[in-house]
Amino acid sequence: MVLKTFGWSFAITALGLAFAAWQWGWEAFGVVLILSILEISLSFDNAVVNAGILKKMNAFWQKIFLTVGILIAVFGMRLVFPVAIVAISAKVGPIEAIELALDQPEQYEALVTDAHPAIAAFGGMFLLMIFLDFIFEEREHKWLAWLERPLAKLGKVDMLSVCIALIALLVSAMTFAVHAHTSTGAQDKSATVLLAGVAGLITYLIVGGLSSYFEDKLEEEEEREHEEEEKAKAAGKPVSAVGLAGKAAFFLFLYLEVLDASFSFDGVIGAFAITNHIFWMALGLGIGAMYVRSLTVYLVRQGTLDDYVYLEHGAHYAIGALAVILLVTIQHEISEIITGLIGVVLIAASFWSSVRRNKRLEPEGSTVDA
């Protein structure tokens, strides 16, 4: 099972590291390896959240997520995205941006760093909405019951998560504006931060809304189909829901890709602390993204989220922490080590809580297979 799910990841790792050593030497080998580990540590919570969505899809769409999805993740976010940032910031074409990255890496990094406030605002708002919608929803299992119970009651207030997210964005933009006015040579990009944050919020509402809509329609169609099959079991033909299922799966897939893009912001920006070489960066982060994809499918096929019920909670709290960190980094620099450790600690704590819960249930005959 492990080899089947992670086989491609192992193969890509071996080929990628071998190619880096052959093409650029042992320094590139080491940098690519470090970047791979960085991406995995920063994105483990991404895999857990993705698994919660991917388990609703059939085997075909899971395979699409691992093939087409990984191409989007590697080439789209880990290679094209940094180049696009530079092209837009420097107002040059993509070819000129690539030449700038190869010939003038310091200037390339400076342009990406200059665009960081907008990137952080977009990604921070998207991830913050995911976290808020999770904690404001009534759930069967509660990890931190003392906190989640009252928040679930508050969640009955319409549009509360949107209001809180907008308040967080306003505070971030105003703080950034004050900092710019009191610092010599600092640029006031508060308007850019506001625009990017609102764009992140709108993206979440559109993609998440479409995903929920088609998922609900699919459930309604499946219920109707089941009723008709019961009525005409002997002679009637079953109603096909393949087309609708395709729409639902497509929008869930789209949601997953936008989610992955938001998660990758910190990894892409953090990679510049290690190297300015865009191909080393794309190769290292791409290898890490492969493991995140494989881990997502592994969690789904093993039923890990059903066995360890608090894992999803830990991942969403990690998302909330990452959203806050992104908004804070609009003005202040935070080490990627802190970002990665917070996610790992929260998920490890939720896993340990799940294990303790399962042990408590064993005497009652409700044991969960590990």
UniProtKB/TrEMBL annotation:
Family matches, as InterPro entries: DUF475 (IPR007427)
Supply the alphabetized keyword list: Coiled coil, Membrane, Transmembrane, Transmembrane helix
Spans through the membrane: 30-53, 65-90, 118-136, 157-179, 191-214, 235-256, 268-292, 313-331, 337-355
Please tell me whether the keyword Transmembrane is annotated for this protein. Answer: yes
User: Lyase: is it a keyword of this entry?
Assistant: no
Q: Which Pfam families does the UniProt record give?
A: DUF475 (PF04332)
From what superkingdom does this record's organism come? Bacteria
Q: Which residues form the signal peptide?
A: none
Q: Which residues form a coiled coil?
A: 210-237
Under which name does UniProt file this protein? DUF475 domain-containing protein
Q: What are the top taxonomic ranks of the organism?
A: Bacteria, Bacillati, Actinomycetota, Actinomycetes, Kitasatosporales
